[in-house]
Design a protein that fits this description.
By secondary structure, this protein is α+β, with helices and mostly antiparallel strands. Helix content is 16%, strand content 33%. It is built from five helices and 19 strands. The N terminus is likely disordered.
């Protein structure tokens, strides 16, 4: 019995010593309330030389002539932007859409669950030096350089550790209200309008889904392409806008999206999402507008 008593005392002392050692070395020993104040981002970034998204695009992207191109940002420049789209329902993959009062752009990050720490409305400061910026199918993106099997180089998904070093919250405790702009369908092929709207959160009102028949869903496994997605044509005033051989206005949905198996509405609807373009040869075929729905509630019945 005495031997057992001494063993118990020794165990209690060891536990107390371990707790004190944790405190001495700065460990958070309150397991019920972990410290996550600095869990994301780089708080050492100082706000200096902030430029607008429009200035960034005018300086680096708009002069590019190839549909797929990239360049490294070597200047000490930053952007202060608000998150407008993320992967909350699995449709926007490995990227977030951001904007300021002058424009919008996509940031590509090789990480899932981005919505957890980059919710819509969160304002962030992004240190751009060392990152790549450019075009993928004429869509502006920020990331790291990637060259595919066809020899095309464009900005693609950066490692999440790289991303953590390049951003910080402007105010981790505040979230902005984010409202979409209305998309002007009469200017779908207006080059200047295209450049100004790429990557924006927008709404198109009173349209219909050309393939909606009360049965077809947004993205079935049987119809997916090599990118695990399905493009559904949008009809404006009962007609599908066409440019060359390609439909120029679509809802682009991943088969992994939470709403992929939902049946498309058959009547007039309003669609809200991140408006992106894909055009490898816009001079010949024009621009294909792709709406990336963020979640199922981005589709609403038009009044």
């Amino acid at each position: 019995m005495k031997k057992m008593k001494y063993i118990l005392i020794a165990c209690v002392c060891a536990l107390m010593t371990g707790c004190m050692a944790g405190e001495d070395y700065g460990f958070d020993t309150d397991w019920s309330a972990p410290n996550t104040d600095n869990a994301y981002g780089n708080p050492e970034i100082q706000e200096t030389n902030v430029i607008t998204v429009k200035e960034l695009l005018d300086r680096y992207v708009n002069p590019m002539t190839a549909a797929n191109d990239t360049t490294m940002i070597r200047e000490d420049v930053q952007i202060k932007v608000i998150v407008t789209g993320n992967d909350i329902e699995g449709n926007i993959y490995n990227e977030v859409a951001v904007k300021d009062e002058t424009g919008a752009i996509l940031i590509c990050i090789a990480q899932g669950g981005l919505y957890g720490y980059l919710p819509v409305g969160k304002e962030i400061l992004v240190d751009l030096k060392g990152l790549h910026i450019g075009l993928y199918g004429n869509q502006p993106q920020i990331g790291v350089a990637y060259t595919n099997s066809s020899g095309k180089t464009f900005p693609s998904r950066m490692n999440r550790n790289i991303w953590q070093k390049h951003f910080k919250y402007v105010d981790a405790n505040f979230t902005h209200e984010v409202a979409p702009e209305e998309f002007d369908v009469t200017r779908m092929q207006d080059v200047e309008y295209v450049k100004a709207c790429r990557g924006k959160l927008m709404t198109v009102k009173g349209v219909t889904m050309a393939e909606a028949d009360g049965v077809k869903v947004w993205a079935s496994e049987a119809e997916k392409d090599a990118g695990n997605g399905v493009s559904r044509s949008i009809a404006v005033n009962g007609k599908v806008p066409m440019s060359g051989n390609y439909s120029s206005f679509v809802v682009r949905s991943s088969t992994y999206a939470d709403f992929a198996a939902q049946v498309m509405p058959t009547g007039k609807i309003n669609l809200t999402g991140i408006f992106t373009v894909y055009a490898n040869n816009p001079d010949r075929y024009g621009y294909t507008w792709q709406i990336l729905l963020r979640e199922g509630t981005d589709v609403e019945i038009a009044e």
